[in-house]
Amino acid sequence: MELILSAFIAGGFFVLMIIMFFLGYKEALKHKVDDPVKIEDFYAGEGWDNDTLFAYEKIVKTIHRELNEEEQKYFMNLVEEGYKGDYLVRKFLEFSRQFKDHH
Description:
The chain is mainly alpha-helical. The protein is 72% helix and 4% strand. The protein is built from four helices and two strands; from the N terminus they run H-E-E-H-H-H. A hairpin with a 2-residue loop joins strand 1 and strand 2. The longest helix is centred in the N-terminal third of the chain and has 29 residues. The mean pLDDT is 79.
């Protein structure tokens, strides 16, 4: 008797899991993101404040292109070290000039 009851309860949970999966899958398709790292030119999970975001946009406008992989790593290192605003822009542009001179 207990075995039959536990089988019904397990089957009920399994059916509920399948229903929840399909409901979540349908919702996920509505909000599909092509690149999970970048959402509308804002890097997800980085917790950038407005100063950092404006500094990034100012750098992109100054160099007239998106940052390559090595430049992005350096930019993120500067952000992690606590640089903000115009000083962040100056530090990055110094690196960018040195990077361009070496290559």
